[in-house]
Design brief:
Blueprint: H1 2-29, H2 33-40, H3 44-57, H4 61-73, H5 79-100, H6 108-121, H7 125-152
Helix pairs in contact: 1-4, 1-7, 3-5, 4-5, 6-7
């Protein structure tokens, strides 16, 4: 029972990190996130590169999928274009798995500290957005660490 709770807690941290990431990106990019995705998906190669970038920025297939669903639902990107972005995201997630082998989850406390400092104590809206993005990485990395910890007990 405790193992399942640890794993579910890790999943919850990842999902919350995705939500914070979206809000941080909105704050940093202003209203330019959806126009950027529209521009980036006009050519197949740009869409794939954008997908790679998205998955490196949001190191979770769930987060990229949620952003993709929101973009399609909002009419910002067509389904065919978003599939190209998702292809790139799959490539980027493969690269991210390689990065995780270097134990990046150990950086979560430093990311959380820096994120809180920027988010709470900055007057600049863009700096607060960067703080939210750093916090989202911290939450995602902590969630990954919890899932690894729970899986190692099985």
């Amino acid at each position: 029972m405790q193992i399942a709770l640890v794993i579910l807690g890790g999943v919850a941290l990842i999902l919350y990190g995705v939500r914070i990431l979206r809000k941080g990106l909105d704050r940093v990019l202003g209203g330019r996130l959806w126009p950027f995705l529209t521009w980036a998906s006009k050519r197949p190669e740009r869409a794939i590169v954008t997908g790679v970038g998205m998955s490196l920025l949001a190191p979770s297939s769930t987060s990229v999928s949620v952003l993709a669903a929101q973009a399609v639902r909002g009419g910002h990107v067509t389904v065919a274009r978003m599939l190209l972005i998702m292809l790139g995201a799959d490539i980027g997630l493969t690269m991210m798995v390689q990065l995780l082998s270097f134990r990046v989850e150990d950086t979560a406390p430093a990311l959380a500290l820096l994120g809180v400092l920027l988010y709470q104590y900055s007057k600049n809206n863009r700096a607060q957005g960067i703080g939210q993005i750093l916090l989202s990485f911290a939450f995602v990395f902590m969630g990954i660490g919890l899932i690894q910890q729970g899986a190692s007990r099985i």
